[in-house]
Amino acid sequence: MTEEIRSSHTVPVPDNVCFVLRRLRDGGYESYLVGGCVRDSLLGNTPKDYDVATNARTAQIEEAFAGAAGCRVIETGIKHGTVTVITDGFPVEVTTYRVDGTYSDGRHPDSVMFSDGIEDDLSRRDFTVNAMAYSPEAGFVDLFGGEEDLRQGVIRCVGDPDRRFHEDALRILRALRFASVLGFAIEPDTAAAIRRKRHCLGLLAKERVTAELFGLLCGAHAAEVLREYREVIAEVLPPIAPMFDCRQDNPYHIYDVWEHTLQVVANIPPDRVLRLAALLHDSGKPHCRTTDADGVGHFYGHADISAAICGDIFARYLRTDKKTAARVTLLVRCHDEPIEPSRRVMHRRLVKYGEEVLRQLLALHRADVLGQSPAYRSRLDALDNAVCILDELVSESACMSLNDLRINGGDLMAMGISPGPGLGQLLRTLLTEVCDGRLANEQNALRSRALELTGLWETPQQNDEAKGRMTQ
Known about the structure:
Beta Polymerase, domain 2, 472 residues, two-stranded antiparallel ribbon, single chain
């Protein structure tokens, strides 16, 4: 290794990570920070975690930290030469320099060979910006021009891109995620290999695909990446492909379905539920497109079809928790439901969905409008008013559920109203009237209205009996 590949840069290193590096060096071994922590530090960002590479074998790593105060070692990946050193509660992964064998399954190396040189370890990495190493004592190591690619904003494979993607197809999605998050361009040879090797994405586990896709979608440049690499995304989410080039021919729209979708993605907050709902909200449109006598396109029932497509995607292509799947599907199904900026309607929506879902629906509505024709942007004012009304209702602790009613089933039965399904319906009716502003959420008013609705006041005797129970 020559001095020419070193840089004069220094990287800020936390004390507990310095301890790990120093402990290995004091034991006679090399130790470097590698990968994302070096990349992020050069970009001026604080790394989320720190990885260390060393020529020490796992047994030697464990020996180096034996007896160190406030330190313990966990064998997290002995087969691949990895242990995790915990110092004062802070985890640092330490891995022996290695060279990967062949990747017959396109996901994992068939074998791992340990090495004594940092050069071998960096040579097996995915992209140049991730193939740099740094040590406070030994300095900066950049064998493949990663620093320059960072400066130029380029994602480039280390070595032959076809080989890198054949080894592990997840690197395809990682390249797109980095481009989305960092706003980097993908180097032409690497981009061409991504397209050639995209069929390999079918080998990946759903969990790995889902994690990378969410990372991509939440990037600041997600729309640009989705636009440029739509055929690659369709390999992992085939149901999006019919949206490509699907014309709308509708006065509300100036884009086809796919470009409209990208505009919605770009205009919604970078939350994974919102971004995925934005990506899929109109996925049903190509399946229900009709054209009237004037040549205007219509998409009746597309929200329900889109929700069904969501169900298929979560069942076949992605792996998420049930809450995320249910929430995305709900937002997609309800995204086209009109939201009138009136207190009565907003109160009803608040009861129906709850505050969190309603705010997400409003965000999706707003992004949807921003992805349509500018001639209809006036609808944004109504959405802004709806948000203001929602804020008022929340600040007033407005009645949002049956639990918020100042009366319950036990109270109603004590008044002589029979238990059963009708009791629940009566409570829901009272809640609706409170939300509509026709009934005060006060116990006497609720009792009186319940008696009216159940007919207990039809005779003078019943009236007197009911009043007597009310005053007890």
